[in-house]
Amino acid sequence: MRFFLDTADLDEIQEAASWGVLAGVTTNPTLYSRIGGKLDDFQAHIKRICDAVGPDCPVSAETVAMTRDEIVRDGRELAAIAPNVVVKVPTMVEGLAATRTLADEGIRVNMTLCFTVPQAMLAARSGARYISPFIGRFDDISEDGIDQVAQIVEAVGNYDFTGSTVNGEQIEVIAASIRSANHVTKCALMGADVATVPFGVLKKMVKHPLTEAGIESFLNDWEKVK
Fold first, then answer.
1. Which residues pair with 24 in a beta bridge?
2. pTM of the predicted model, to two decimals?
3. Residues annotated as part of the active site
């Protein structure tokens, strides 16, 4: 499993990158608004993120257009920011049509707000490079998000969709809307390719009380040696 950071905060991105664990970044309009982002600075901010993580880390930037032509237009503009930009497109009819066009033009798409196996199958066939099923939003309505993601991982793995994607690349499932380290554990066990996590969750993944107790014990014993 690879780890993407779900944020638009440059400080968080740079800190996670310094750990050597960051493989990509996902953003969305909500995350951008939380850092006080402005419309006229959006593309420049995406470029700053791309520069911070380097060309080998995909950076997902989301279109807010609702028609296929507008999504394609936005997708072209976003893809022109940097080679590692991936265009996030919502799972809907107009999004599927736009994804097919963008993929045919060599532009990678992350199909987001995916919740069911049928949606995932359509996204894969339309040419999406990444499919992002959301876990936490299922939990918000008292449904089992982990089970839904597991079904999507299994279903996508049953077929070879490389003929639909840009340059025949393998489709990957990004477990999204992750709220806890336990979500990450379950997604890793089911074989999700990527987990995109908030910085707070990434920090919690490092922690365990036995690790902290062990460190404290070692330090105390070292003081005795000194």
1. 4
2. 0.94
3. 88
